[in-house]
């Protein structure tokens, strides 16, 4: 294996974190801001990209880091290396309520395509790059745009998604229709496309958007119950508009008691 072999354990329910165990000279890489805690003996180093490129020239490093910027990731990553003789642990926390998804890439064909900002951490040697959507309609209306995130290699990688995450195995030719914002990721052999919802009532009054994402097997897919954009929209709406309580009198009293009635 070219990637470092790491052991791990995931803790928590709604706000999870993953504890990665490193043998001597093993390294884990993570997004800036994902770090939670580590034991003494682990050395941190900020690097361009993911550290997998063989060409060490400044131009190539800038190119690799620039590709990551296209999918919403930082130009830099942090490498955590165990410089001692015994095993050491480093932990990375999820950025918002949801689930951490462990992925052993060799069991998934060596490649997983996922939504932007989904990457949390991985074993050193896993490549984090970009995947272009070649179909015009999929890029324009697929919810993720023309560029998605791509994880390649033969090691462990960890994604994070909002809400609960469902893992499904699609059989050859099996089609799953999904809200475009609910896709977390899928293996490389899954065909990703879009389909018009259809029907004037569905289009005007359905409230679910104009397009489905269609995922066609064979392959494995991960679906989230609550896209972060939907959560952010609800929070924004709640903070922007005055709440409508049940019953005008009781609602008014409730607003006064919790302080809203005095504003």
Account of the protein in words:
The structure is a single chain. The protein has 263 residues and is of the alpha+beta class. It has a domain of 157 residues: Double-stranded beta-helix, CATH 3.60.160.10. 18% of the residues lie in helices and 41% in strands. The strands form 4 sheets. A 6-stranded antiparallel beta sheet has the order 5-6-3-10-13-8. A 6-stranded antiparallel beta sheet has the order 11-12-9-16-19-14, with helices on one face. A 4-stranded antiparallel beta sheet has the order 1-2-7-4, with no helix packed on it.
List keywords for this structure.
263 residues, alpha+beta, Double-stranded beta-helix, 6-stranded antiparallel sheet, 18% helix, 41% strand
Structure summarized in a few sentences:
The chain contains five helices and 19 strands. The protein is α+β, with helices and mostly antiparallel strands and 263 residues long. It has a domain at 7-163: Double-stranded beta-helix.
> From the coordinates shown, what is the CATH architecture of the domain at 7-163?
4-Layer Sandwich
| Terminal Cα span | 62 Å
Largest sheet: 6 strands, antiparallel
Strand order across the biggest sheet?
Answer: 5-6-3-10-13-8
Specify the structural class: alpha+beta
Report the uncertain regions: 136-146, 199-207, 246-250
- CATH homology group of the domain at 7-163: Mitochondrial biogenesis AIM24
Please outline the helices and strands.
Layout (H helix, E strand, L loop, with lengths): L6 E5 L5 E6 L4 E4 L4 E4 L3 E7 L9 H13 L5 E7 L5 E6 L4 E7 L6 E4 L4 E5 L3 E6 L3 H6 L5 E6 L3 E7 L2 E6 L4 E5 L3 E5 L3 E6 L3 H6 L5 E6 L2 E6 L3 H13 L7 H10 L6
Antiparallel strand pairs: 1-2, 2-7, 3-6, 3-10, 4-7, 5-6, 8-13, 9-12, 9-16, 10-13, 11-12, 14-19, 15-18, 16-19, 17-18
